[in-house]
UniProtKB/TrEMBL annotation:
SUPFAM superfamilies: alpha/beta-Hydrolases (SSF53474). This is Serine aminopeptidase S33 domain-containing protein. Residues 8-114 form the Serine aminopeptidase S33 domain. It comes from Gordonia effusa NBRC 100432. It comes from the Bacteria.
Amino acid sequence: MILVSPAMAVPSRVYGTFSSELTAAGFDVRVVGRRGFEPGDAPASASNDWSYHDEAADIADAVAQIDAESPERRPILLFGHSLGGQLAAVLLSDPTSKAADRIDGLVTVAASIPHIAHYPPGYLAGDIARDVLRRTDVEGYWPAPGFGAPGAKTLMREWATMVLSGALPGDHAARPIEIPTLAIRLHDDMFVSDSAAGAFEALVAPSYLSSWTYGPADCPPNGSLDHIRWVKSPAPVVAHITDWWCAPGPGCAETES
């Protein structure tokens, strides 16, 4: 079973091809949608707020639902794309989380700690983060057409604080990630520098970490290495996940996923 945690402001329908190709590779797939961006969801507003921990709790609820549906223990692989990877880290670093103990492996694509120190001076995210802090304080949420908008006040302020301070929400020193982890970087990702990706990967205990950079030589003619658009032609990523998860070693599942 693969649980997919999407990128910021990206609805689950965007992962349709990715989910279909994972299914063809033998996985059951569920997408844990981003709050406010699924059909029927109330969007973020001054009266509708949530945090990183709230969205991490949505992942935990999905894990509990899987266990409630079957008396047999099913291996669970958590997949996090960009913000979805950060949410996975928040959940897996929580020493009180039962769901964290239930997850067997982690895959991330384009996950990072986007601290401004990891980017050249004048990097746009710093200005966006400062604007988030100002506008959410006045308006009670992050309104469109801003980056990732409409965004919940608390979550966006946590994101902005991470950009300016380098601190991912939660106490990550309390519990390093100690499950098999595959961190996939995208070659020349305009949003993720090598050092920002490395800062995220440092949350994983080294003996559990594998990494791969999806580069031009791997990309099909109709594919993309873009931070979001890679998901439209995801065959190389699906193949790498499958090879890693099914190979001998720490990523090997002993039972069907």
